[in-house]
Amino acid sequence: MYTLTGLELKNPTILAAGVLGTTGASLCRVAREGGAGAVVTKSIGPAPKTGHINPSMVRLDCGFLNAMGLPNPSYPGFLQELEFAKNNSAVPVIASIFGGTPSEFAEVAEGLLPANPDAFELNVSCPHAEGYGAAVGSNPCLVEAVTAAVKDVVNVPVWVKLTPNVADIKSIGTAAESGGADAVVAINTLKGMAIDIESGYPVLGNRSGGLSGKAVKPVAIKCVYDLYTALEIPVIGVGGVSSWEDAAEMLMAGAAAVQIGSAVYDRVDIFSEIGTGIEAFLTRKGYSDIKKIIGLAHEMI
Amino acid sequence: MLPLNAIITQITEETPLVRTFFFDHRFEDMEPGQFVMVWIRGVDEIPMGLSRNNSITVQKVGEATSKLFELKEGDSFGLRGPFGKGFTLPVRGEKVLVIAGGVGAAPLSPYAEAAFAAGAEVHTILGARSAEDLLFEGRFEALGKIYISTDDGSKGVKGFVTDVLKNLDVAAYDRIAVCGPEIMMASVFRLFEELQVLEKAEFSLHRYFKCGIGICGACCIDKSGLRVCKDGPVFSGVQLIGSELGNYSRDASGRRVKI
User: What is the reported pTM?
Assistant: First the structure.
């Protein structure tokens, strides 16, 4: 067992927001068959949204490009899914939420409380939804206000998921910490685009979107490394992790746990594979505890 | 993969509402029942079952398919795939029943042909609203026995595919492949459940796809959480026991919609 912001995880792998998180049943599947230590839901907002038109996700040689556009059934429409996930999965279920203002964030968080999520993750980092996500998350004052507003209405841990599409991610992380965040999650996708040269059309229905997968891992490692230095609260690492080696690298950069998203493309049981791989690595290297490698890279100067 | 540029080589009117678009690329390794994502540029990208390794067969139902119907030979669309899991092919000597309703005949015709080529005996139940809506009747007829049902009785049995099915000895078949409107598949499913033959039946499901490649989770079905785009679209009857089949699906926002 492993403790993260007070939550008990059987291993330090967590399903990232926006991935296999639209239904309670799929969240349970990732926990049960996939072996995730915890799961994060699709981001839920104040009103139903159908998202952007397709194509909304394509695979590139170096990763994935997506612009879903925060599709969600709104918090009243998601309650039964969250309840199902809570009642049928043996792992912590974290509700990812978004809004355009501090009061909208608070409204969504309060609206989901009846389903008893184990924590909230605030999406202030989606790179392709106008007025939401990174539009909020690139403004430190707004990040602090949003975090404080949610902290005011809930009694469970609040994580804040940060965007790398800013000049200084540390200042945003600090703002989240000042607002009372229990952890930050870094990173969301990097702004990206692909163009079909046969027709000249941008490939994504939204024209541009966010890059995930292998290509973003070095960016995520650097962001986690910097945030670990700047913050007192835990940093949860996410971005391009698809093997236990990637996860170990993320932990050494300073991540207290690792989220996995795009890599479910290859196999849903990637979580147990990574969890087992890390255990074996710790044993092989003689580390008594996972804490021995968290932030290890900071000591090697 | 980025969408490949598929140039339309031929368009065939199949029924008043259904057209086949042949394109200049062959998916040599396709499993019958797999689908492609068809990108009508500037409009939308929609999943379509492959009706051959170089064609899709499309019913005009909404904005994207209407735009597709405006395209001419020589025009192009984007194509990604083939994706998902298709129907299980029989082995030589097996007896296969194909149950196709409406445009559900599109992914089933290459399946029936592949089953025939593998040495199986292939029988088909083909259903449609009326005689003029029967899709690929000739393709199925060329393989073996064909039973027809039409809602209005203009050809074959007046009624649904289940009305034909009730009079067949389902136990005599080794494999059964089903694709059609969900209400039809749900009634076939219930009949098979009663007859206890679900383990040899496979159903091809339709759900709203966003990513289409198994990551986003928009198409997951209850209660298994299986992804229609990657773990399906073809599921065994056993996988669908106690599922949402015939009850509800989800729209683009993830809200449940009654079927």
Answer: 0.96
